[in-house]
Task: inverse folding
């Protein structure tokens, strides 16, 4: 009996010792002792400023801060994707494959835009472009999260009101009399965020040599024209493209998205 107990202890104890001796996961030194949740409560610009406050002229410290923020951003997206998958609320295999193709086209455009940007993109601008490209994967899963929490329509719907018959007119409106937009309607259209983004993007492309302009336009079309994306994503793509191509300014058209 004692021999049996001794054999059991020999089988159990090493495993327990091994589990207890497993080294703890090392904290990311670039996070300055903060959790990802704390870091993501800050904008990327504020985080980089905090992380480089001791020596703002050190380019390497800027790049490390940007990468640290990006790792936290990816971790949050990964958690959301896993949560949706466990609940069976995530995107289908076909939707994921289409997003991968969209993301590949976006990266291809960004590489071309960074190469054609004036002044030429340095390592810091390239790192920021890589960071802000991460927003699209998060938006992709956020849209599925919104669908998952959307309340189901009530089973008992009130009866629809009786339709009012249209008033009789002696003659239909003439096709030769198109509606002319009023000044107020034109102002609303000009102030539309999508219209503003398209106009700005076009103006940035205009001064480029024809070969560069056509190449960028073609690559951009592969992003927004070949994939079923939401209006939110479409607008974000335009702003992302503008942020890469527009020259430095105190008041950029497309400030950092986060």
Result:
């Amino acid at each position: 009996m004692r021999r049996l107990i001794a054999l059991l202890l020999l089988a159990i104890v090493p495993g327990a010792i091994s589990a207890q001796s497993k080294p703890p996961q090392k904290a990311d030194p670039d996070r300055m002792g903060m959790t990802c949740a704390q870091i993501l409560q800050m904008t990327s610009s504020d985080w980089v400023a905090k992380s480089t406050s001791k020596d703002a002229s050190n380019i390497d410290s800027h790049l490390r801060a940007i990468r640290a923020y990006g790792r936290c951003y990816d971790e949050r997206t990964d958690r959301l994707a896993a949560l949706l998958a466990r609940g069976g609320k995530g995107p289908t295999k076909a939707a994921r494959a289409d997003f991968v193709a969209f993301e590949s086209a976006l990266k291809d455009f960004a590489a071309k835009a960074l190469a054609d940007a004036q002044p030429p993109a340095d390592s810091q601008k390239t790192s920021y472009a890589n960071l802000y490209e991460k927003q699209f994967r998060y938006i992709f899963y956020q849209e599925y999260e919104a669908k998952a929490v959307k309340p189901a329509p009530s089973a008992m719907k009130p009866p629809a009101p009786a339709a009012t018959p249209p008033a009789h007119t002696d003659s239909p409106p003439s096709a030769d009399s198109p509606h002319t937009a009023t000044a107020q309607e034109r102002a609303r259209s000009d102030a539309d965020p999508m219209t503003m983004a398209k106009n700005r993007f076009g103006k940035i492309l205009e001064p480029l040599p024809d070969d560069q302009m056509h190449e960028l336009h073609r690559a951009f079309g592969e992003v927004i024209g070949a994939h079923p994306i939401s209006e939110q994503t479409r607008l974000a793509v335009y702003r992302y493209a503008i942020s890469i191509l527009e020259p430095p300014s105190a008041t950029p058209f497309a400030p950092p998205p986060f």
User: Anything to note?
Assistant: Confidence is low (pLDDT under 50) at residues 7-19, 163-175. The chain has eleven helices and no strands. The first helix runs from residue 2 to 20.
